[in-house]
Design goal:
Elements lengths: L1 H35 L9 H5 L25 H20 L2 H10 L6 H29 L5 H50 L4 H11 L3 H14 L4 H11 L3 H16 L3 H58 L1
Length: 325
Amino acid sequence: MNELVTRLSAVVESGWSWLGASLGVMVLAGATLVLAGLPMSRVPTLDDRLEPYLRDTPRPSSLLAAPPPERGPFGLLELLHPYVTAAGGVVGGILGGSTSVAQRLQRAGLPADVDRFRAEQVLWGAIGGVAGLAVTSIISVAQSNLSAPVLVGLVLVGVLGGVTGRDYALSRTAARREARMLTEFPTVAELLALAVSAGEGAIGALERVCRLSRGELSDELRHCLADARAGANLPTALQGLADRTGLISLSRFVDGIVVAVERGTPLAEVLRAQAQDVREDSRRTLMEQGGKKEILMMVPVVFLILPVTVLFAIYPGVSFLRFQL
């Protein structure tokens, strides 16, 4: 009984100490934000220095202004925005690969805003750090002899896991979107071939298909039509589609349409051939995935079911020999 009371008192004292440490960290963070927000701590930016000399210039049109940023709860995100942006720049300088990030953002159907993505990585890292801190708190309460480097290492692992987890989530989002586009591609190509066979031009066929269909590929085709209406020719707009996606099938599709439009070859036959090629690629991919899954299915059979079967076959004979001895 005395031992139980002693352990409970130790747990309570450890909990109070962690509560005091958390309150101290929060007070220190608040004081740091207040000091960083003072006028003497703020370095004027280039816009701040040039603003007094540009006040007489006419205001630009509100139609060209960027939409205002989303406001967070109680203005917290606005307060932390400069620090999150600065931390995102540090993360980008350490990790690098801004070109790859911009390409994956386009492939995922998101704006190619690398700075915003770095800020999201910082937020994910902060969440991972909080999770690591919670785990270290639980471990330290359960085992009072845990060393401080191990606790700090767990927090750093949580931060790194959050940063890399956001990058992995972006890659998965881009891959899933491209998989949906490949699924929609044969149907869209057949619809385009039917529209062209009925007498529609290339732009008219794209407009008709965009009106009748919904999906990721249809959204990209609408983007191409918007670029064409903005002044770009159709081959250039379609080449933008190939550049925004990392799919070889769509690149071949765009090349076929561009060649058919520029040289006057029958567009309907090209589209049907492209749709058939994509179906064949999908069939081959499905067979490859089936072969990989078949190999993975052998793992539980070989390492779980087969040893149990051999054990049931051998155990009666072994027990009988042991009884005879």
